[in-house]
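Deviation from plan, reported transparently: adenosine monophosphate complex.
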Amino acid sequence: MNDCIFCKIINGDIPSNKEYEDENVIVIHDLNPLADTHLLVIPKKHISCADEINESNSDVIAHVFEAVSKVTKKLGIENNFQVLNNCGENAGQSVMHIHFHILSNKEGRVLWSTTELK
Ligand code: AMP
Ligand code: ZN
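Because the crystal trials were delayed, the predicted structure below was used instead.
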């Protein structure tokens, strides 16, 4: 996608603080971190939003979570992180290229809990 900021990062046209890369995904540090560790797992395939996942492209999601497992171990935050995906502007999505936030605070401080929604 020509005007997609994450496609530009994937193509190397915009610099990023890259933590991990393989043939399917890139993992970068978020420009405006909201936690002690704030990473973005970005599939290399341009898919706008999670509601576009279907049986022909759902392998992308498996690759995302394989990268989540690898990178959290690499950074020593395994067992202490949350994964967040926003789909749609009303849900807080600002970059229309599917991505998953990895958020982790030191000392196990949880960022938000599903119990808050109950
Ligand atoms: P979302 O609001 O879920 O679409 O998340 C988009 C995220 O991308 C935000 O947390 C931004 O801070 C982050 N972001 C935007 N541009 C860049 C960039 N050039 N490098 C790294 N992170 C970025
Ligand atoms: Zn894109």
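The mean pLDDT is 94. We consider this an acceptable substitute for the interim report.
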